[in-house]
Here is the input.
Amino acid sequence: MRIVNIKLQLLEYPLETPFYPSWLPGYPQTAHRVHLLTLETDEGIKGYAAGVAFLREGTGFESLLMPFLFGRDPMNVEEVVQITRSATFLGLRLWWIELAFWDLIGKAVGQPVYRLLGGYQDRVKAYASTGELRDKEARLDYIAQVREMGIRAVKLRFHSWDWRADMRVVQAVRERYPDMEIMVDANMGWRVAGMAPAPKWDLATALRVAEELAELGVRWLEEPLDKHDYEGYRRLREKSPVALASGEMNQDLHEFREYLVRDALDVLQPDVTLSGGILTGKKIAAMAEAFGKQIAPHTWTNGLGLAANLQLMGACPNCEWAEFPYEPPGWEPNARDFFLTEPILPDSEGYLPVPSKPGLGVEIDEAAVQHYTVA
Here is the structure.
């Protein structure tokens, strides 16, 4: 089996209302843009991968990928990892293209990827992941909504200039819903400059926030420091009474190794579209397991990215939680999964099923792809 056709398309889905991501202060997102890669083999099998797109920065990617991927045996994923690793030397984060190879492999053998990686679980407990800063009344309404969906865990955002304002939201949720699992994301791991001022925590601030969150029974504090501040995380974890999580924008094995050898985190959060692909994600999970750590992959990308991360989660015994990005009306399942035939939703018990069809487990809506492709 060899790759005989390569196609890259930019898709753009207009959002119902502007979405204001807390991690990009000053940026009103009005559309969901995706780079969709299609690989076709000489046996007529198509494999898909999808990467984050902001505007048209992917122009020329198809020509760039052609000499590296055309004629390649899709079963040789290790070689693809070496190619995507080489791309980082040019400043390109192309780990996500590896997903298409796993999609091809799974379809060729008639199995979902998580079973090919060893299998373990066919569903993972979901937590509703918020994306905006909202006041406590709006957040309480949100919690009531996700509880009706069966979800009993939520991740709240901290990114106000005064973190005490965000703490009041956590306090209100804990008071109203004492049985709710709560996670908190500070989004200090990677910061985008130039659009609007944003807060930046130091070690002392992170520790104080952690101490107050521990009193409220919060499960973990995510990204309180920069993604490369391994020493800062080590020092913070020595004193933090709440578990620490990070890793969504870290990449490749060596960066996650630093967290582990320094005993700097409790939960590693690689994203297979951002951190190294599915094969590298499985290796990171294995390293974490050896150190007695959990993984909880980041999934704020697109529907195919969520499906691919769920395939990794399904193959890992040290993965308890699955992130379910949900912030209506701007960011809801139809906006996230617009190019899939069906949105990915939790079951009635609040678990996300691992997609069970061959490959990445989901089907591409070709009509939607054609409709939303940017010429």
Summary: The first helix runs from residue 61 to 69. The first strand starts at residue 3 and ends at 19.
